[in-house]
Input
Amino acid sequence: MPAEPSAQLMGVLLGPVYAAAVAAVARFGIPDLLADGPKTAESIAAATGAKADLLYRLMRATEAVGVLRRAANGMWEQTELSALLRTDGPETLRDLAIYWSDDWRTRAVAAMHKAVLTGENAVELTYGMGPFEYLKSDPEAGLNFNRAMTSFSTTEVAAILEAYDFSAFGSLVEIAGGHGLFLSAILESAPRLTATLLELPQVLAEMAETPLRQHADRVSIVGGDMFSAVPAGGDAYLMKRIIHDWPDETAGMILSACREAVNPGGKLLVIDAVVPEGPGFSTTKFLDVTMMIFSGGKERTAAEFRRLYAANGWKLERIVPTASPMCVIEGVPA
Output
């Protein structure tokens, strides 16, 4: 029997509590403790230093959404969802869960009504500065953000590489590619490809260890600002989760710079989510609201990507879906 409307709405309104509870499980490191097998609630509480009765109630709540599981003997076990909250998993959303529950971010989300009413950035309304300025001012928040973006990538890279063949290019320029996790995976999949990574100098200064080191003979790392210029001469220009950070006018500046720099016959590869048409549920629609209030950016529909490309010297050739929420939105020079 379908739930009453009030019960359905209560489930929606409790969403922030669900997220906070899952983030607390991640912060306590419970999925790591369960990596070598089931444990009692008492032993988990002893290992984490938490109050046993309260920790049990937290774990019981997250069990209801598939994070953690109790066996018939009462021992707590790992699930496919809790395994994604381990620190050492090949795919992990642990840092994303922690970032989304950071105090500064939840306070900004609470300003959504004001942001929609005024058109102003929610972080600026709350803290008097934009999100990227705030992250610079709060080193811990900035570190959590950078870790969260890497966390996102670990769950998407394999799906993207399975869906799209990068070996067709001789040279690739990745713009704002962070510490090179995705680019390293691309180079691994395409042994004859050479690449350039463009990033801000302050991001590159944090790259004491980077996956790109194993491909040092095939990659150039360049410090710079994508709004000023991008390295010329690439067969393809790649941006993953970058264009969605910006409104059309600002995003267009980056796309135009890539159009000027690309080799004849080259391509533009924007990897972002695509908002589906129609009224059905989609997490991308809520990610779009997140971009709207935090950075002034947006997740785009296929039609919006087509218009954005056309306005900046590109023709949208095709949209390649992947097994993740990400799509490869491929453009060619118009």
Notes: The chain has three domains: 5-88, 100-151, 157-333. The first strand starts at residue 69 and ends at 70. The chain is about 45% helix and 15% strand.
